[in-house]
Every structure is written in C-alpha cells, then in structure tokens.
Here is the input.
Amino acid sequence: MQIDLAHYHRWEGRLRGPWYSALAVTRATLRQVFRRKVFWILLALGMLNFLLYFALIYAGTQLPGVGDRIMERFDFTVHPDAQRRNGYLRFMEQQGLVVMVMMAFAGSVIIGGDFRQRGVSFYLAHGLSPWHYLWGKWLAVAVLLGSVTVLPALVLFVEYGMFTSDFHYWWENKAVVVSVLGYGLVMAVVLGAVLLALGAWLRKTVPIAITWTSLFLLSAAWSEQLRRTTGDPHWRLLNLWRDIRCVGRAFFGFYARREDVQLAPWAAGALAAVVLICVGYLWAKLVHWRRWE
Amino acid sequence: MKSWWYAWRALVWVTLGRLWWSVHTLLLLFPTAALMLFVLRYRERFAQAQPEQVIEAFAQFTQTVVVMLVVSFLLPVVALGFGTTGLGGDREEGTLVFLLTRPLPRWSIALGKWAATVPLVVLFTWGAFAGVCWLMGPAGRMAWRGYALPLFWGAMAYGSFFHLLATWVRYPTVVGVVYALFVEALLGNMPGVIKRFSIGYYVRSWIYELGAPWGVSPPEMFVPLEATSCAWTLIAITLGSLALSAWVLQTKEYIQQER
Here is the structure.
C-alpha cells in the first residue's frame, strides 16, 4: 500500500511550540465528551438555573416595579450590595451541584478512558511530555467547568447590561467580569487537578462518582461536625468545596462571616496543597507509564 | 445433564463474587467508614444526655444522619455502585454477548443478575446502617428498630431501578450517576408532586411518619405521603423494575459496540 493511501503526509502548516500540542489534546478530549448524548442532557439540566436567572433579569428590566420585587424574592442582585455580594456570585455558587455531577461523569471520559484503554501511550508517543498531556486535559476540564459556571454568569452580566439604556452598567461593574473569571479559575485549578488525579487512579465512572461525591459530601458533614464538637473553625478547612468558595469569594471581596476572612489564607494553602499532591501523583503516574508501558 | 437451575445458580454466584470482590466494594467501604467515624463524633453531643433526652437525640439523629447521610447519600451511592455494574459491567466490558449465548432463557439471566445484585445492595446498606445505629447507642437502637424496614425497601427499589437501567440503556453507569446525584438531589427537594419521581422521597416520607410520634418532623416544603402508600410504591418500583428488566433483556437486540 502506498503511503499516500494511508493519509500520511508532511505537515505543511506553520510549526509552533510543543505547548500548542496541548490544544490538540484538549480538542480530542472535548470531542469525546461532546459526542455523548448524556453530556448534552446534563448540560441542559445544568442550564435550568441559568434560564431561571435569565428570565428573572428579563422580567426585572421589562416589568417596572414588579420586576424588582421578583428579583428581590429570588435574592438576585445585579449590583454588588454593601457587603459586595451580587447575583453572579450567587449563581456560580448554586451551580455547585451541576459541577459536581458533570465532573463525576466527565472524569472517566476525559482521563479514565485513556488509562483504561491504554490510550495514554498514543498521546505520549507524539512528542508530548507528560506536562503537555496534563495541560491539554486540564484545559478540557476548564472548558467544561466554564461552560456551566463562568460563561453563563458572563452571559447574565451582558444580558442585564443590554437591557439598560446605556453602557454605564458594564463600565461601572467591570470588576464583576474579573471576579467571575477569578472564581472560575480557582474552581478549574482545584477541581481539575482533583478530577484528573481521581480519573487516572480509578479510571471507571462509578468508582470516580463514588469517591468524588464522598469527597465533597462527607467532607462537608465531617468538617462541620468536628467544628461543632471542638469549637475550632479550622476544621472547616477539611471541606474542599467550602475552601474553593472561600478563596473564590476573595475575587468578589465578599465574605459572609468574619471567620471566613480569617480562614481564607488557610483555605488557599489547603487548596494549594491538594493541587500539588494531585499534580505530583499525576506526574509520577505518567512518568511511570512512559517508562514501563 | 443438569438442569438450567444449576447454570442459573452458577450465574448468581459468579456475579455475586465479581461484585463483592471488586474495587466498588472497597470504595464504598470508605464513605461507610467515614460515616461511622462521623457518628462517633456526633454521639459525643449526647454523651451526657439523660434517659428522657434519648428521644431528642433520636429525632436529631434521624434528621442529620439517617435522612441526610444514609438515605440521601449512602443508599443511592451503594445502589449505584452495585446495581449498575451487575449487568452493566458485562455490557461495558463486552462480555454480555458470551453470557447471552449460554443455554439460559434471557429473562432468567436478568433475574439471576438481579438476585445477585439487589441482596448485595440491601445487605451493604443494612450493614452500614446497623453499624451506625450501634455506634449511636440507645437513640441508634431506636432508629434501627424503626427504620430498618423503610431502608430495606428503599434499597430494594434503588437496586432494582439501577438494575433496570443496566439492561435498558447503553451507558448505565453514566445514566445512573446522573440519576443518583442530580435527579435525586434536585427533584427530591423540589416543592409539589414533582418529587414523587425520586425514590428517596418515598423512603424519607416513610421515615418521617414512623418518627413523627418522637418529634421527627419533615422540612417546611416537604409534603410527605402516608407510610402505606410509600411502602406499596417502593414494592411496585422493585417488582416493576424487575419485570421490566426481564422483558427488556428478553426482547432487546444487543449489538456489540466498538470499543
């Protein structure tokens, strides 16, 4: 068979650095996720909250008097209040359940399948280092996370601004964009690292889902119980989800309690430790894989 | 020549062994252990309680541990771990086709997988609940006597429903994860009758009615059903799921997917 028939040919485009190869990994990974119908069902379910707030903003701007009361009833404010809390932060925090379920589903597709079916070897055989592979996979997780948290929050922000009479709303509240992106980044870094590590370790959907949910639900129950029993608020740092919220809220400048302000640096440290452990595990796993498989 | 009963029994034992000696069991033991450690700390709150305060401890234990952690979290996760992999594991690993070529009626394969899976779900859940209740002391023993039956039928219904998913859909584990984590959590806490799509709702309603004489009350927006209706609904879900899974396996054409 001629080599042309096998579609082998020289690369004729512009050659770029190896970090760009991570984009190909991201693209291939996202394609695998998007081809699952269940992902679209999940995304649709995850967008219910977004649709609610989308309709709320529409009603709030189009029905003078009544609209404000509706938004107040749902505790959604488009302007930061005295404590710098606003509806966009509220929306992102409410998406927690969606994020948890979507990540539980995506873990085995994004990375578990590569290890289960030995696809990692193919990635690492293409002049990619483990870092490029991890970077590409992490970007895929970040895109999925952003599609249910950051992107809808920004759409809501744009929507409200479009229903006002000028561009002042966007200009006056431009910090919201940075805050939303910052919160999203914290979520993506921490959840991405944990998910990739769990996916590489457990590989299959059900074990990942069991561990993932236990990690978030039981750690919350545990940390609260220990705090109540001992009276020491530092036990709350065991709750990973709360740590993410605590650090993410720093971008909004909003803290519900004084205790959260004190815990924020500790929470950042705890998250950094978790990320380092996960990345270290992934690195060791990939190096071992490249050497022995 | 031995009858099909021997083959069917072998299928049950092999499935039971594969499910029990799996990574799922090990992973399910972690949250169970964490739950028990949680109760060890939790009971310290009531360590100094007088005998008449056991009732209050029981009410709080019901709300915090039985409803929030056992029924809403552990029960669906255990059912997910075992229920979807009994038959779904064969499907995902591509070994179902070998199973279907055995000289057994297809409906009996569904029945055999169910007979291996659902008792495991029940025993695991009961075991975890018994351990938690034992650690809790007198209030826990009250809870065991009161709530063992709702948990039994809850585990049966969840296990059977996930078994049905395993026979019906191509990716039962993924659909099961979506149901257990999203539908149950979302619909089960919604106002109105929509929460009746959640199996956990019936278990919780039953528990609330059983605990009502001792001060256990449902949350504000939760409108419970009568215990009798809950019991019959859970039995109907169990038997209906079993019958439907047998019918689906009997009639559906399974095509080996490219892996």
